[in-house]
Amino acid sequence: MSDHDVAARLATEAGNLLLEVRDELAEATQDERKAAGDKRSHDFLMAALAAERPNDAVLSEEGADDPVRLSADRVWIVDPLDGTREFSESGRDDWAVHVALWQAGELVAGAVALPAQGITLATPNVSAPPAAPGQPRVVVSRTRPPAVALAVRDALGGVLVEMGSAGAKVASVVQGLSDVYVHAGGQYEWDSAAPVAVARAAGLHTSRIDGSPLTYNRRDPRLPDVVVCRPELAAAVLAVTRD
């Protein structure tokens, strides 16, 4: 099975497990659903990767960082449940599972499962988004849109689209439901690795907000900012974000 297939299958299966957890704990508190979802998806992915790719290292949001990954040639970067808040809220579908593979300095495979939507976007074959309908749509958090995203919206004469997890936001650009995702409020590698791999496969622009490349498997896994957008909007977006 190829690395692309492993990423897609494991993201999808972890997502199906999370749907089961959601059903099982329908009467539990939101905090109980969050904790159970994080743990069970993490445990599943760690066991599955150990079985499928036993010689590879893993960086997971829910696991202790293993310094061995810094000298490894291949590292899986996973977010077992991206958007725990949305997952814990009945009926919301804007949460995701991220599974990406970094190899020799590059993201080489990735999958973003949107379990509540029944969708998994996975490399290598990701369709480019359909043509934009008009005003650029800037996808932002439901609660605290970062100031940089508001500045981009104003500069482009665009509109805001509110959504939950980072993976769901990037997926919305891939699917043509929005046009720009820009974040500068602090993230980690697992928040963007798989979404960026998928976005690149779809032909989208991906970078830091200063236009520099996104790099992964660094000693410090913090990766605080990201831009994902239609390539034709990249110059206009970066003109704002670089400032």
TrEMBL record:
Cofactor(s) demanded: Mg(2+)
SUPFAM superfamilies in alphabetical order: Carbohydrate phosphatase
Signal peptide: none
Reaction catalyzed: adenosine 3',5'-bisphosphate + H2O = AMP + phosphate
Superkingdom, taxonomy of origin: Bacteria
PROSITE patterns: IMP_1
Keywords: Magnesium, Metal-binding
Matches recorded under InterPro entries: CysQ/Inositol_MonoPase, Inositol_monoP_metal-BS, Inositol_monophosphatase-like
An example molecular function term from Gene Ontology annotations: 3'(2'),5'-bisphosphate nucleotidase activity
GO biological process, one term: sulfate assimilation
Gene3D superfamilies per record: 3.40.190.80, Fructose-1,6-Bisphosphatase, subunit A, domain 1
CDD domains membership: CysQ
Residue sites binding Mg(2+) per the record: 61, 79, 81-82, 191
PANTHER family according to UniProt: 3'(2'),5'-BISPHOSPHATE NUCLEOTIDASE 1 (PTHR43028:SF5)
Protein's recorded name: 3'(2'),5-bisphosphonucleoside 3'(2')-phosphohydrolase
Upper lineage: Bacteria, Bacillati, Actinomycetota, Actinomycetes, Mycobacteriales
